[in-house]
Amino acid sequence: MDVRRIRRGLETKEIERLAADGRLEHVGRREIVPLDGPTLAVVVAGYFRIFRHAAFVRDVTLGLAGRGDVLAPGAAFGDRSAETGAEALCDARLLRLSSDAWQTHAERDPEINLKLAAAIARRITRLQKKLEEISRVGVEGRVASALLDLAADFGVTAADTIRLDVPLSQDDLASLAGTTRETCSSAVAKFARRGLVRGGRLNGMLVLDVPGLQALTQT
C-alpha cells in the first residue's frame, strides 16, 4: 500500500549512546510532561500526544511521538508556546538529557541533530496542514487525514493492509482530527462500511484502502 514513510526517530544504538549522559524516568498513563524546561527528552518506550494550549478552546493536538522521537523544549521552535506539553497515552519511559549533553553528542554524531530538526519541521508542517484542513476540509476528510498520518508514522504493513499499532482512543483520534468523539466515531464507522478500514478500535485497526482515504482529504 502506498503510504510514504516519513518517520525517522533515533535508532536504538543512538539512544544507548545518549543514555550514558542522561537519566531514565517512568511516565504513567495520562501523565503530562511539560515542554517548557531546559532539557530534551527521548521517548524510549510508549507513545505521547504532543499538544499546545489554545485560548478559549481545548488543547490542540499537534501529533504523536513514539520510540526514538525527541520531545524538545518550546524554545527549540523559536516560540516557547509552540509545544506546551506531551501526554503519555500508556505507561512510558523517557530519557532526559540537558541541552549541553545533547550538544556534546551532536558534535560527535551530527545525524542526531538532523533528526531533531527533521522532527521539528515535520510537526510544524503537520500543524500548518491541520490549520488548512480546518478551513477547507470536512470532518470526514480530517479524520481520514489523521488516520493516514498514523499509518505513515506508526503503521505496520502486512500484505495489502496497514495495521495501526498505537494505543489510541476515539477521543485521541478526535483530537488529532479537530472534532468531537461522537463525530469522529461516526466517520470511522462510515469508513468501515465503505471498506476503507476494518475494526472499530484504533489499536489494531486495519487500513484497507489508502487511495480511498486520500480522496476524502480533498473534499
Largest sheet: 4 strands, antiparallel
CATH superfamily of the largest domain: Jelly Rolls
The helix content, as a percent range, equals: 40-55%
Q: What is the number of beta strands?
A: 12
Distance between the termini: 22 Å
Number of helices in the DSSP assignment: 7
Work out the oligomeric state of the chains in this entry. single chain
Shape descriptor: elongated
Reconstruct the topology from this structure.
Elements: H1 12-19, E1 23-27, E2 32-34, E3 39-45, E4 48-52, E5 60-65, E6 70-71, E7 85-88, E8 92-98, H2 99-108, H3 111-136, H4 139-154, E9 155-158, E10 161-164, H5 170-177, H6 181-193, E11 197-198, E12 206-207, H7 210-216
Antiparallel strand pairs: 1-8, 2-7, 3-6, 3-8, 4-5, 4-7, 9-10, 10-12, 11-12
Helix pairs in contact: 4-5, 4-6, 4-7, 5-6
Structure overview:
The protein has seven helices and twelve strands. A four-stranded antiparallel beta sheet has the order 1-8-3-6. The protein has a four-stranded antiparallel beta sheet with strand order 2-7-4-5. A four-stranded antiparallel beta sheet has the order 9-10-12-11. By secondary structure, it is α+β, with helices and mostly antiparallel strands. The longest helix is centred in the middle third of the chain and has 26 residues, at 111-136. It has two domains: 12-126, Jelly Rolls (Sandwich), CATH 2.60.120; 137-216, Winged helix-like DNA-binding domain superfamily/Winged helix DNA-binding domain (Arc Repressor Mutant, subunit A, Orthogonal Bundle), CATH 1.10.10. It is elongated and about 50 Å long.
